[in-house]
Every structure is written in C-alpha cells, then in structure tokens.
Write a structure and sequence with these properties.
4 copies of one chain form a homotetramer. Chain A is built from 13 helices and 15 strands. With about 325 residues, chain A is of the alpha/beta class. Chain A has a 7-stranded mixed beta sheet with strand order 12-11-7-10-9-8-15. In chain A, strands 3-2-1-4-5-6 form a 6-stranded parallel beta sheet, with helices on both faces. A two-stranded antiparallel ribbon of chain A has the order 13-14. The N and C termini of chain A lie far apart (about 45 Å). Chains in contact: A-B, A-C, A-D, B-C, B-D, C-D. The interface between A and D is large, with 38 and 38 residues.
C-alpha cells in the first residue's frame, strides 16, 4: 500500500477520489481542498482533511493527486515534486506553454515522478486500437480521423478561464494523434466556428472546429470537434493504413435494441466523459500505483504536456489567421 | 434465348413475369391466365396472351413458369411435363403429400426438368452462409436456429385454402433446415398458438409456432414463426458449430442511422418477401435459364417438395396432439 | 456500514469477496473457509479468518455471504438464518427441490432476509431489456428466445456433482424466462444431446439442449444451450411482442473493428461469466447492502429457487422420456 | 418507349448499356463507338451499330447517352444538343472549367435537356440520408464528413489523362457536399500526399487527400480520399446537426457474420463502384427516362458540373500552394 494524498474534490477530483479509495494498492490518507469544506467527503473515503503544507511535510506520503482547479496545477505539482512526492496531475499541467518551459528543469527531469493524466491513453478501446495498429493489422498507418464531440456546451461564462476550445478540449485529440501516429507533426491547419451558441462567440471562443495535422511524410490526422453533438458523447477514432482500416466505435449505454415498424433503435451513447472513460480513470490510478511501486515510468508528463499544448497554440493561431502554421 | 410461357399473373406471377422479361437469356412469348384479362400485362412485357393448350402445342416453347393459384400447380405442371416442357413451378407443387406421391412416376423422373422454386435457396445471404458452413468455418455444424416472421397476418378468410401455417409458411423453413443440415431429420416437435388474431383460430389455423427437428445424431434445428412481427419481415438464420457460429442477420431498407439523445435509429427491416427476396427471385429465373440451357439440374423438385411437406404434416400433427412425431 | 462475513473463497467466492471488500456500504469482517488456508486472501481484503460458529455467535455481524460449495449452501444458509443473519447465497440454494420443500418454513418465511443470487437479474443489459418490455415498447410480449452458450465444456469429471446441465446451467435461463414472461409456465419440452464431448455422455450428462416452455395462453419461451460455443460466452435474449422485437446482443471485449480485404473483424465475445457479468455481480452486492439497510426485499429467494428447480427437473424428465411434461 | 442511342461501350459504357437495355421505358436503338468493334455488344442488347452522324440525323432518336472517353464528352454532348437530342452524359462533362464556360450559352440553356450523371445523387442510401436531414431529424445541419476511398489505385500511367485526383475522384465528393449542405462554399483548403504508390507522384499526381470546405456561416465539410483503402470500396457520409448525427455506413457484400474465438467477422465491403452503385446507375437511367417523358428536369447539368469543377480546381491549387483558396 502506498500512502497518498489528494488536492481538490471538485468534478474531476471526485472521480479520482473514488478510484484512489477503491484501489487496493493505494492508501488515501489526506484530502486537501483550500476552497471547500470537504470533511464529509474525506470521511466517506476514510481520509483526513489536511493542508498541503502538512501533506508535504509528512514523510509517509509517497504521492499526491493534484486535482484542483487548472490554474493551481503547476504550482502545486512543483511543490509536491520539490518535496519528493510522486505527482498524479489532472491534465493540463498548465495552459501556457511558455510558463511550462520556464520550469523545464523541474518538470522534464523531476525530483520525483510526474504523471500528467491524459485519460484517453488509458481507455481500453483506444489501447486495443493502438495495439492492433502497432501489430501491423492495417499495414503502415497513413491517416487518422478523430471525432471528439461533447454532448452539450458548458455555459458560456465558464469558458474564459478554460483556455479556449483547443487548449481545453482538443488537447485530448492532439495527444491521441501524437500517441497513434509515428512521426512528429510539422504543420497545423484549423477552421473554427461558433455554430452552437452565440454567447460562446461573445466571450471570444469557438464551439465547432476541424483541425488537420500533417507530418513530414504527408501523413494526415483530422480532428473533428463540437461542444454539442445533440446525441451524447461521440468519441471515435478511425485509422487508415496500407492494408485496411481500424476503428473504435461509440460506446452505448446498453446492448438492447428495439425493432419496430419504423426501424431498430439502439441505446443512447454514453452521456459524458465520466461514464465513457470510467475504465480509463481507473486505469490512470492503477498506473499511478505502478509508478509508486517503481514498476512503471509515467506514460505522460512534461513532454506530452508541452507537445499537445504546442499543437493547441498552433491550431488557435491557424484558426485566427486563416493560414496554416508550421511547427 | 429460350422461348417460354408463363401461367398466372397474380401476386407471385407478377414477380416472375418481370424477372422473366428482364432475363437476357429468356424470351417470354406467352402469358396464360384463365381467370383474368391479362392483355395489358402481357403487352407490357412483350408477350402474347394464349391458352395453355396453345402453349403446350407450340413446339418452340421450351419451358413454362407455373405461377397460378396453388390448387392448379400440380395439374398444370403435369400437363407441361407431359408436353415435354421444362417447368418452373412456384412453390408448393401441391399441399397434399399423398397426392404428390400418387404422381411420383411423372414427378420424380419427369419427362422434362421440373424445378419447384423454393426462393430461400437462391438468396445470396443464405447461400453465403451455407458456403461458409460447408467451408468448415464453424467446424462441424451442430444446431440451427431459423427465424421466419412475417410482417403482418393475412386476413383470416384467406387462410382456409392456404394449407395452414406449417404448409403455407413454415414450409420454407423446413426446406432451409434440410438444405443446411447434413442428415435427415427423424423427429419433429411443435407448439403452435393463436396470439395474433382470434379470427385465425376461428378458421382453424394458428399464427405463432416453434418447431424443433432433430436428426439421428441429436443435432437440432429450431424454427420460430409468427404471422405478425410488428417490425417488418424478420428473416434470420443462426448456425452453431464446434468452432463457432455463423449467422445471417436481417436486411434493412437502407444504410442510414440517425443518432439522437435517445439513441441510434436504423432503417426499418424490409417490408416483405418481394423486397427481401428480390435477388432470390431473380436467381430462380437465372437457374431456370441454366436448366433450359442444359447447364444445371433443378436445385429442388419432387424430392424437396415431398420432404418439406412431410415435415409440415408432422409438425401439424405434433402441434395438434402435443406429442413429438417420429418420421 | 454493515458488518458481514463470507463463507468460501473458491471461484465464485473470490468474485463476491472482491465486490464485498470494495462496496462502500459493507464491512467485510470475517472470511470462513473450512477447506482452504485463506489467511492470505483474508488479509488482502482486510478480513479476519474465522469459523462459522464464531461468525454466528458474533452479534455485530449482520449478514453472511454463502459462497461455499453447492452441497453446503442449504445447511449453512439455514444456520445463518437461524442466527438471525441476513443471507446472500450463491445460487443454487440446493440442487434438490424436495429437500428445499422440506425446509419451506425456514426458507419461505425466514427469520432474516434470504437472497439467492441469480446474477442475470442484475445484469444492466437484461434489466434494460425488461424495462423496455414492461414499458410497452414491443406491445404485448408473446415469445422469448434465450441463448446461453458457454465458451468451453468443463472437464467431464466435474459434472457428476453439478446436478446435470438443466440444474447447473439452464437454471439461469429458467429464472430469466420466469422473470421476463408474465404468466407461469404450464408445460416443458426438452431435447438434449451429447455433441461436444463423449466423456460427458459417459458420466450421464448432456452438453447441448433446446428447451421449450409455454404458459396457459400459448406464449412460448425457447432456451438454447451448449457447453461449448467455440466463440466465447454467447449470452443473448430476444423478446417478441405484438408491436415488435427487443433484444440484448452479445457483449464484446472492445469497440475496435478492423476492416481488411476479406471483411470486418470485431473483438471477441467476453471470455466467460466473470467478465460478462462483472457488473451483475457488483449489482448483487449492492442489492445485499440494500437488504441489510432495510431498503429492499430480496429480489430472489426460496420461491425463485423452487420455481427454477421445478422447471429444471421437468426439462430433465422431458429430455429423458422424450415426452412433454405438464407442470 | 423512348428511342435512344449510346456512344461508347467501355467500362462505364457497358454499365449504362445494360441498364438502358433493361429499362422498360427506353428503346436502345443504336450503339456508336468509333474506336471499337462493338457489333457483338450491340447485338447482345438488340441495338444496331451506327455512326454518330446517322444518330444525329435520325429524327426518331430522342436521346443519347454519352459514355465515351472523357475528352470526347463535351464535343459529343454539344453535337447531340444541337441536333435536339436529350443528353445523358457520363460525368464529367469536361475537365476544364474554362472550356465549359466558353460554351455556357449552349450548356446552361440547352436546346434539349442535358443531364450530367453524378451517380452518388441516385444512391438510395445517400438519398435516404438527405431526406432525413431535410426532414429535420438532426436539427440544423452544421458539418459533414465524406469518406471516399477507392479499393486500389489505378496503374499510374492511366492518371495523366484523368485530370488528377481532385477532378477525377474528389469531384463526386464536391458534388455530394454541395447537394447536402444548404449554402455555397466560400473557401477551400486541401492537403494531398503520395503515400500509396511513388509512381503516382512521378506522373505528378497524388493518391491521398483531405479537403475542407466552408461556407460563409462557418459550416464545414471534410472530405477524405485515398486511391487505395486496403479494404474494398469505403463510401460513407456523416452529417452532424444541432440535434444529432445521421450517417450512411458502408455496404457489405452479404449479411453473414462468422463468430469464432478471435472475434466476429463480417462480409467484405463492396469491391468497387459497379456493385456499390448498381442501384444508383439504374436510378440514373430511370431519371433519363423521366426527362425524356417530360416528367423531370435534369437533376444535374451544366451548373453542377461547373460548381464541382471549381471546387476541384480550388482544391488542387490549395494542395499545390499550401494556402487556403477563397472562391
């Protein structure tokens, strides 16, 4: 059992809290949340409420889950690393690539393991897809199509602190693209529109986008985004190779189909990321346990954070200027 | 081009008429229908209206499609065979196994080829299924499940002349079972109910049935029937073998799916036999052209007719007595 | 938190042990296993090894999970109930309907809640199917088709104590049939064969069966069983009603499809009951927590056990005599 | 019956020839092919071999199918129109938008109906998709994704006269995009690579592309192309709207699935355009019969030809310059 603490018990924090509590290899000792009264939540998982300082000073704590608000991630992660605690940081590590680079020394070669949790990499379906591509089942990979459509747009007033569509949302797809395709991307092109809610345009953001990435050999990845699918959480990937195609289809809520005069109706798509990626979040926590046990290096950390952020910034620039951006 | 005639221009007759007219190897010269004025129909396919006597006396006519009412099939087929004409007889050849046996000499070793058209054998999907079973893809075949569900029950007053559910409807499934499974069946068990329309019970028929057939080794086929599926024409077969399963799923009207909040909706099933088995009916006509050209022996004739009728009679007896029937 | 104990840490026991340990409303205090050294297993879930007597004498223990070998279920369940402990008993409660009836007083109106765990009723897919049927989506339910095919037959020497195919395996389907269809069954017909492994016949059992059940109105359920599907764990239900059909399809291992020249290949079926019914086993444990909290009555207990056992005995008799059996 | 002639009996010509011969409303009287001896082919469909001059001079001929080589389409179509014959012209009318515009007077307001056959518009699946979009089933249409992947690249030496990927192949997708989306496109961006066969690059063409189109409101269409899918003829469209998504999936060769230990395998995709679009080609011919009967105006003619060619030229320019192109 590895003794750990968690910072933050908000929306993503509650997901990680439950998985940490249920993970048989982790002992969740402390819950830190400077902004909320989390005593009841802490009690429900058998943890104590504590301050971050106390956690950092406690030598029995081996690792810390950073699941606070995005703007606190970097500072808290740096503090934990400095104290020699392994870090599980909810993505993103930070929204500003320049700021990340300023701390490159502490983040790229950290004093303790730094794991930035990109959940898609832990989804069993995407892992199976990648294994089949790597196994040569579709020959040489040539192009990829990623569909990442959210069920419904957040209220527009939440968006100004999000970093914008590309950093907040497409960031997952940039990471997937890099994870699936063999070579680095050299160019980005993006179109972005506001088709869902005019209030989103008013706060300077977009809600619908298509992004293209290409590598030096001309292999292309296309990313499709919308903030509102109208049909649940649409999460698919298609990979095209020299010998065929492999894809991950949508995951539906149950295996029931009802056939009537007017056709067959299947179950709805998963309603959102919590249910669609429930296994992935558990997988992240297992990975953190592996890291604490010295059995794994972090799948994603500083390098993956910087790489996806660079693609997000290039996409934002392309969407704004209307021109392709070379990396 | 083989010169042919057709008897009957009713529901099934019109299907065959069109396929005969469009078949590049057949020259449909005459249309015979003692009960209807078919001059306009005949003109539409470039055929002349004629009497059966005239057709039988015309040496240029090589074959005759018998698509009249069921009760006329046997007599007309016998007359055509006696005149040396190859016969394409819409199923059934007759509803009475005893009567068929009385003409065994003329039917089992006929003077000209006798093809009784069991359409399922010419369906490309079922043919593909059979090819894969024969090719060993599921190992040794052990059990089969046939679903044959009609969209909507016919008016009850049509049923008394139909021969009853087993002879009129399940007959197709008995033929499929024999076609797919390697050994003859030795026992039949059937339950039949009237769940769809009480008027069907009033005329002495049933509308819902489950029939089980088994061979001497204990391999089992289950047939599922209803006169009213409530969801279109449900036509499926599952074959279970020592190394897996092969199945033919339902054929839907188009490849469109619509995803909304409440789930994904696909197109309806085919509405009935005319659309579901359109390719099969064309295939039957091609087979008749092959027979006329001397390139094929009839896929099904007297033997298949007698065999499926025997199963139908056994099933009817089992349903009536509540006991299994040994063949 | 409800303090509980578990008897048995074998194959099914280990499933329940993990779910009990992870259930936030249950405190698994003791593990009893008279036949194995379970100290390490107990430690892994934070439980103490104890004797059944100690558990029964401990007033703090509210409930007991009976997951021992089948032949011990009844005696242990009775002892627990007599001690006032709520019981979660892995199915079957017993293999002998007569013996159950001998204890009807203690079992049908037990001193503490008795839950006999039929896992299918807790499968989210089958629950969704039932909800849609109950919701009237397919009109009035008329017939049901249940496919329950195991991946691979157990070694024949395990079978003599199993109770035979119908009591050991089809028992799930009998319970599903009763759960889905509105009226009691009045007649059973079964054919059973040994097609998979001759050694199964040598020990007096069968490996392949088709069972038909019907109610007084003529509504029919067909059950399809094999001990070896050749293609994983094939678990499907189709329900046919007056306005259409609803079905639960197979659950596959992942959502990946690979398209190549020779067709599209999907992921394998779930390899067995542990993965296919993982959610159902968790659901059973939640239900036990509800029972302990006084928030639910046991979904299934003595009555369901006796009912499904009666169908199993009737099916076995039908298969042996070749005759239908009236209930 | 409308008396018609056909020019050309090559690959596409043979498709139209058969459909014309089988169409009950058309009388295919003449076959013109200046380059081949087509006497046998003509005889097989009951047509006479003739010169184009003879056809043009024959007042009984109401229409002409132009299915010659692409470089002859425009001149022959103009000659037929000048002679008052309705024209069914295999796409493209011409590969050069400038040349088409030079004949705008004769083509945009032709002396007889001019139908340029874009086959996708007559595919029943795409028609059903469009009907559901128009019917409001997915709310307001926002974005479209078109996948058009050929099974295998043609020999590179055929490509120089093809007009290049965008004019030869993507042209279908440009027409589909315009057909599905409500507003004209205002900007095009394309990336194109040579990933399939270096010989294609050597003749100055590309084999893999992604094209994006957008309209003034910011609605986006993405087109995916490859000359070699490795898995048959992959033809799909997805349409995303404010209330959900509608898509046309791939059409497979049969409805058989085979389940084995390693997963379920479905039938291959259609091998190419002849089988995938067989219904569409028949639909085109029906449309031509409607035009000849005065019951329909041509679905596509000069305007659609110019529009799709303009998009193709813009895409080619974008791919070459690396910059988006405003229309």
């Amino acid at each position: 059992m590895h003794r750990i603490a968690q910072i933050g018990a908000g929306r993503m924090g509650s997901v990680h809290l439950k998985n940490a509590a249920l993970n048989p290899r982790l002992d969740l000792a402390f819950l830190v949340d400077p902004r909320l009264d989390v005593s009841e939540i802490a009690a429900s998982v058998g943890a104590q409420v504590a301050t971050l300082d106390k956690v950092l000073a406690d030598d029995s704590v081996e690792g810390v889950i950073v699941a606070s608000s995005t703007d606190a991630h970097l500072e808290q992660a740096l503090a934990c690393l400095a104290a020699g605690k392994a870090v599980f940081c909810e993505k993103p590590l930070d929204l500003d690539a320049g700021r990340l680079k300023a701390f490159e020394a502490q983040l790229a070669r950290p004093a303790a393991p730094l794991f930035v949790a990109f959940n898609r990499r832990f989804d069993p379906h995407f892992q199976a897809l990648r294994a089949r591509i790597k196994g040569g089942e579709i020959g040489e990979l040539e192009t990829v199509q990623i569909v990442n459509h959210d069920p419904a747009a957040p209220p527009a007033h939440f968006l100004p602190t999000s970093g914008g569509l590309f950093k907040d949302f497409t960031i997952h797809d940039f990471d997937m693209a890099a994870w699936l395709m063999p070579d680095p991307f050299v160019e980005v092109f993006a179109w972005a529109s506001c088709l869902v809610d005019p209030a989103i345009a008013e706060v300077g953001d977009v809600d619908t986008a298509r992004v293209m990435l290409r590598d030096a050999r001309g292999r292309i990845c296309v990313i499709s985004n919308t903030r509102r699918s109208g049909c649940g959480y649409d999460q698919r990937i298609e990979a095209f190779g020299s010998k065929g195609m492999a894809n991950v289809g949508d995951v539906v809520q149950d295996a029931v189909q009802v056939w009537r005069e007017d056709g067959a109706k299947g179950a709805p798509l998963q309603p959102g990321f919590m249910s669609r990626y429930a296994d992935a979040y558990r997988g992240e926590m297992d990975h953190f346990a592996d890291i604490l046990a010295g059995e794994a290096q972090p799948e994603t950390g500083y390098a993956a954070s910087v790489a996806s952020l660079a693609l997000a910034e290039a996409a934002a620039k392309s969407a704004k200027t209307g021109q392709p951006v070379r990396l």
